[in-house]
Design a protein that fits this description.
The complex is a heterotrimer of chains A (about 375), B (about 325) and C (about 260). By secondary structure, chain A is an alpha+beta fold. Chain A has ten helices and ten strands. Chain A is globular and about 80 Å long. Chain C has two domains: about 190 residues, HUPs (Rossmann fold, 3-Layer(aba) Sandwich), CATH 3.40.50.620; about 30 residues. Chain C starts with a strand and ends with a helix. Classes of the chains: A alpha+beta (about 375), B alpha/beta (about 325), C alpha/beta (about 260).
Chain lengths: ~375, ~325, ~260
């Protein structure tokens, strides 16, 4: 059974991320969202790298902090309270971009890329989704053909978070299209150094506007043979295992968003006076806040359980799916209620709750839609 | 009782602060039997102050001569004061709170084994003892301490809350004798001065102005300070700023008012475009009147103001300037 | 190089003060935090030491460990319940002498909540090592320490040989966050505890919460002309308008 008490170091890490978020991230969050300033988000990622946050769950011998997913989740809780765009860019870098290299790379690949990724010098991205391959990853149409000492990649990837400023993108393509999912392979692509890759679109989105999601076009993209991750045909398994870890990151991201919205609504309700008293004295508002608190406690608990299970090296796919499903639904509900508590003014840009509500929606969709999570869970319980 | 006052005298007229220290010394004991000795760095203009000084019972004035213009180390001034204490059998030494005097007093108290009491905001005499008040925790708390009237080094704040009427005694001495002490600098050099840059002199220094205007982030950009300077010129006011203004780089750090800046005690503090954060308000809580102008009706500053106007400073200040010009 | 930093914990400046919570010290004195930052900047060799000295009334190590996370290499907690600054200075000097030779002593010039600022001078007197007070910045080059010092009229640049004592007038501007490695390495750094008994020189101090009642006359929906009229009415009521008239004439005549 895990301990419900945090160690002094874990508390100090929470405090440090909290101070960093309040002083460095929060002041510009609204403007970055309005202006779609993803380069501002990238600069903050670099600052986080200096504090050792960009490699929390990775081994010290590769430049990481040598801690686990528990500390990564704690950092995510604090960071996402103030800026969900930064939160998702951070989560994609750690779990989706750096994770595959850490878990499936050979020693040369790890020595080459991990130290720079953990220090924040390199930022990572994950190129799996395609226009015709979302939940159905096997419908991928990107191809990879081996020619001498290179693989030639062709195709289009979309919704690639961090794409255009990433230094490393883990890209999935079919080396053997006739084998379906068993024909997908994973590659480590350096978009700044390999010719044949173009970023042709930046998505205009409802939320997380200070993060960038690109459409990437690979036209005869040349990837050295040494950058094949794992073996040919293992790509699908790498992708699924990576998404399992990513789910814990997204759960922490969603819990953070919900906490930020709840705390804002709580403070607002203590100051807003209607009918002669603060609205927090009205039972209808007090009960709304109690519901929000209740849901966040549950979401936080399943997220920490999933993180702890992974750190204990026990099978964590199901806890991760439960955490992602619970936390993201809670985020959507809590942020919607937060706007409701603030009333008309909560709908305006004077308060951050409208941004938090817009940010929360995508959490129910990416890194495995909540419907896919139910598929995973039902598949496991009915086995 | 023998009282030694160190006067940090710069101008050719006796400053208000110096007068206060002299008055304080005259009121440190209800007993009429006391002697006041003055020590000061010599300057040409100081010679002429002898006539002003006749208003107080000063037994002797000591001028410290620095003919060769050596760099003045505060520790060496402490050594001079130590010898004076022994020669004159001084009971109490008092000073003001300039940075230079703050360098002398605690070191001196250690060498003489005297008690050191700084930042005194008021004092009371009771049963042959003296009770000092100090404002701490950013002027949120008052600390009272009691001492015998002996073996003390005291630094009194300016604009002190006078608790007993200032009495001016008829001077006992028609002609105050003067002694000169040479500042010797042929002893070991403690450190070397490489460069000196004059701090930008303010027309009306913050610490002593009777009216101070405080400016916060609401001023929006450094160019708008011209408006505040116009108002300050008419009122003869000092200008101070909040931490946000210093953080933005619009004004230098030594204009910052607050718990980590200057704590001031003006008659009137005009707070313009500042929200009234606790740490800033700590610096001006002792002002006699606080008037604030802010366009946010929920600004904290209104809780600490006597008069608050919710409005646009860029409309109100020009009209105020026009009104004052016609007075 | 051996750098000694004297740090203290104090009451958070943005909390409401009451007689109940006045002894709950929760933050590192920002002037001392600046001193630790400066010590980290001067330390340039792996074997340089930054030894943190802290006097506290309890043996709670949290604040000392925070200092270690910000750059200290070892910590020395002195548990002493007295309040006489002379005792505090004497105890610090006794502990400092146990360190043998040192190069620098850095500290903040005062506690943000109690502007006495006497400890650096008392240590200066007891140790007989030169002190540069009211420092804004320091850097080390060619075996000399260059200090930027504030005086009443000037900003001075001073060069001094080591060993010396520096007290800082500046407090932390850009907070430096401890990195994850800093946090995780705190428990690897040595900490020493020393207990001292209360002396007879304890000062008897009475503390009172000081509240000034303001009139709180706030005018919300008035236009700027009426605002100016209100201001002038109140200045009159406060006896300042007549005084203002004197000021204005005084300054007009000086022009």
């Amino acid at each position: 059974m895990y301990s419900l008490k945090f160690t002094e170091e874990q508390e100090r890490i929470c405090q440090m991320v909290k101070d960093f978020s309040l002083n460095e991230v929060a002041p510009g969050a609204k403007e970055r969202d309005i202006n779609g300033d993803f380069l501002g988000t990238r600069d903050l990622l670099k600052k986080m790298g200096k504090l050792g946050l960009m490699g929390i769950p990775y081994d010290k011998k590769y430049g990481g902090a040598g801690l686990g997913y528990l500390e990564y989740a704690l950092a995510g809780f604090e960071l996402n309270k103030v800026d969900a765009s930064l939160g998702i860019s951070y989560s994609v870098h750690i779990s989706l971009g750096t994770g595959p290299i850490y878990n499936f790379g050979n020693e040369e690949q790890k020595q080459k890329y991990l130290p720079k990724l953990c220090s924040g010098e390199y930022i990572a991205a994950f190129g799996l989704t395609e226009p015709c391959a979302g939940s159905d990853a096997s419908a991928s149409q990107c191809t990879a053909v081996k020619k001498g000492d290179k693989y030639i990649l062709n195709g289009t990837k979309c919704f690639t978070t961090n794409g255009e400023f990433a230094d490393v993108i883990v890209v999935f393509a079919m080396t053997n299209p006739e084998l379906g999912t068993k024909g997908i392979s994973a590659f480590i692509v350096e978009p700044k150094n390999y010719p044949g890759i173009k970023f042709i679109k930046r998505e205009a989105k409802m939320g997380i506007r200070a993060s960038v999601q690109n459409v990437i076009e690979m036209e005869n993209l040349e990837v050295p043979v040494e950058n094949l991750l794992g073996q040919e045909g293992k790509g699908f398994k790498i992708a699924m295992a990576t998404l399992d870890c990513g789910r814990i990151g997204v759960a922490a991201h969603a819990v953070g968003i919900a906490k930020g919205a709840y705390e804002y609504a709580l403070n607002y309700s203590k100051e807003r006076v209607q009918f002669g008293k603060p609205i927090s004295k009205l039972q209808v508002i007090a009960f709304k806040l109690a519901d929000m608190y209740n849901k966040i406690e549950a979401a936080e608990a399943v997220t920490l359980k999933a993180a702890w299970t992974k750190d204990e090296h026990a099978p964590y796919s199901i806890p991760a799916a439960v955490a992602k499903l619970t936390a993201t639904n809670v985020a959507m509900e809590v942020t919607t209620e937060a706007v409701q508590v603030l009333g008309g003014t909560g709908f305006t840009m004077d308060h951050p709750v409208e941004r938090m509500m817009r940010d929360a929606k995508i959490t129910q969709i990416y890194e495995g839609t909540n419907e896919i999570q139910k598929l995973v869970i039902s598949g496991a319980i009915l086995r | 009782m023998n009282i030694l006052i160190y006067l940090n005298q710069k101008n050719n007229y006796l400053s208000d602060y110096s007068k206060e220290l002299l008055n304080i010394a005259s009121n440190l004991t209800k007993n009429k039997d006391f002697n006041i000795y003055l020590v000061s760095l010599y300057s040409e203009s100081l010679k002429n102050l002898k006539d002003d000084l006749k208003n107080w019972n000063i037994k002797k004035i000591f001028f410290i001569l620095n003919k060769d213009n050596y760099y003045i180390y505060p520790t060496k001034i402490s050594h001079i004061l130590t010898s004076l204490k022994k020669d004159l059998d001084i009971d109490i030494i008092i000073m003001g709170n300039s940075l230079f005097e703050l360098d002398i007093a605690p070191y001196l108290s250690m060498r003489l084994e005297f008690d050191y009491i700084p930042n005194i905001s008021s004092f009371f005499l009771e049963n042959n003892q003296i009770i000092f008040d100090r404002l701490i925790y950013g002027t949120k708390a008052l600390e009272k301490s009691t001492y015998n009237l002996k073996n003390l080094v005291c630094i009194f704040n300016n604009n002190i809350n006078k608790n007993q009427p200032w009495k001016i005694h008829a001077n006992k001495y028609n002609n105050i004798p003067i002694d000169f002490i040479n500042y010797k600098s042929n002893e070991n050099i403690l450190y070397e001065l490489k460069n000196q840059v004059l701090k930008k002199q303010k027309k009306h220094p913050l610490e002593t102005s009777k009216i101070v205007i405080g400016v916060g982030k609401g001023i929006q950009n450094p160019e708008n300070f011209q408006l505040i300077e116009n108002l300050a010129n008419i009122l003869g006011a000092g200008i101070g700023v909040t931490r946000s203004v210093v953080d933005h780089g619009w004004r230098p750090e030594y204009e910052k008012i607050g718990q980590t800046g200057k704590i001031i005690k003006p008659d009137l503090y005009i707070a313009i475009g500042l929200s009234g954060a606790m740490q800033h308000v700590a610096g001006v809580k002792q002002a006699r009147h606080i008037l604030s102008i802010n366009n946010n009706p929920n600004a904290e500053i209104f809780k600490y103001s006597d008069l608050g106007i919710v409005g646009d400073l860029f409309e109100i200040i020009p009209k105020l300037i026009t009104y004052l010009n016609h007075l | 190089m051996k750098i000694i930093v004297i740090a203290n914990e104090t009451f958070p400046t943005d909390q409401n003060l009451t007689l109940e919570n006045i002894n709950e010290k929760k933050i590192l004195n920002p002037y001392d935090e600046f001193a630790i930052q400066k010590a980290s900047e001067i330390k340039n060799h792996k074997n340089d030491e930054i030894i943190i000295f802290m006097i506290s009334k309890s043996d709670n190590l949290y604040c000392l460990k925070t200092c270690l996370g910000l750059g200290g290499t070892s910590g020395n907690l002195i548990i002493f319940k007295g309040n006489n600054p002379k005792d505090l200075a004497a105890i610090l000097v006794k502990e400092i002498k146990k360190q043998g030779t040192f190069d620098l002593i850095l500290t903040g010039e005062q506690d943000v909540n109690n502007p006495r600022g006497d400890i650096p001078y008392m240590i200066n007197s007891l140790l007989d090592v030169p002190l540069i007070s009211h420092c804004l910045d320091i850097h080390y080059s060619n075996n000399k320490l260059i200090c930027k010092k504030e005086t009443d009229d000037f900003l001075e640049e001073i060069s001094i040989n080591l060993p010396c004592i520096i007290s800082f007038r500046k407090n932390v501007y850009e907070p430096k966050y401890p990195s994850i490695n800093d946090i995780m390495s705190i428990n690897e750094k040595p900490i020493f505890l020393n207990y001292y008994n209360k002396s007879e020189n304890n000062l008897y101090l009475k503390l009172k919460i000081y509240n000034v009642k303001r009139q709180n006359k706030i005018y919300k929906n008035i236009d700027s002309d009426k605002a100016v009229k209100k201001i002038s009415t109140y200045l009159d009521e406060w006896g300042l308008n007549g005084g203002l008239y004197e000021y204005i004439n005084l300054f007009k005549s000086k022009k």
